[in-house]
Design brief:
mainly alpha, 3 helical TM bundles of succinate and fumarate reductases, 12 helices
């Protein structure tokens, strides 16, 4: 087993498994965040955000989702998630370096699929990964450091995710940065999804075409959910409930 994991195929397998784990997390994260958009349609975004005592005047779906994310089970999963990110990034860099070394130049990892050969994202996975990682650090300063990190340190954490969303996206340039991030994420996921299955053996022509379509659908759903949250929060902060962030 140890020999397999240290082999080239084993490293690609680990990269695929860690990628699958992160895709599941992104889908869950995007779904819970999208609850804030639903709360806007029901009028609970403003009501819940204005309540200073854990939203007793009107619990919204987003607040309930955040409560779920703060449970002990999910809290324990945070270090596991962080480890998954580290493994995915490290193995991605290692595989890219190995590929460059083996081919003696700047060429992507070649696979026997015309879809991959024609895909811009498949040739620039490392670049997309760097963009995603860079904005991820920016993203963590907006949410994780003000909520989960404070809880870990025993300090008082921000307990109103509605205000945090509005405060984050009230500036148009922040919204633009996030939209660029989501575009990079979409390209990365579109290629990464079917490539993940190819690595574990689903590489026949029929299934590879199907998986490529499924990957585009999954990536599109995840990114649309995130984009909707960002745009909705921008609208809430600047037009619907500007009073929520007026003092911030």
């Amino acid at each position: 087993m140890a020999r397999f994991l240290t082999s080239s195929i084993g490293k690609k397998f680990i990269q695929s498994v860690s990628g699958a784990f992160l895709i599941v997390f992104l889908l869950l994260h995007a779904t819970i965040n999208f609850f804030s958009v639903l709360d806007s349609f029901t009028g609970k975004f403003g009501v819940a955000a204005a309540d200073d005592k854990l939203f007793s005047a009107g619990d919204g779906l987003f607040k309930l989702g955040c409560d779920f994310m703060s449970t002990s089970v999910i809290t324990i999963m945070v270090p596991v998630l962080a480890l998954g990110f580290v493994i995915h990034i490290c193995y991605g860099c290692y595989l890219t370096w190995s590929n460059l070394k083996a081919r003696g130049g700047v060429k992507r990892y070649e696979v026997p699929s015309k879809a991959a050969a024609d895909s811009w994202s498949s040739k620039n996975m490392l670049v997309l990964g760097i963009v995603i990682l860079g904005v991820l650090a920016f993203h963590l300063t907006h949410f994780w450091t003000k909520m989960q990190l404070q809880e870990f340190m025993g300090a008082e954490a921000e307990n109103n995710p509605y205000i945090l969303l509005a405060a984050t996206f009230k500036h148009w340039w922040v919204l633009v940065i996030y939209l660029i991030w989501f575009a990079a994420l979409w390209l990365h996921l579109c290629h990464g999804f079917w490539s993940m299955f190819q690595t574990v053996g689903w590489n026949n022509k029929i299934w590879l075409k199907r998986l490529r379509v499924i990957g585009i659908i999954v990536a599109t759903v995840i990114v649309i959910l995130f984009v909707a949250v960002a745009v909705n929060s921008f609208v809430e902060a600047n037009w619907l409930h500007p009073e929520l962030v007026a003092a911030i």
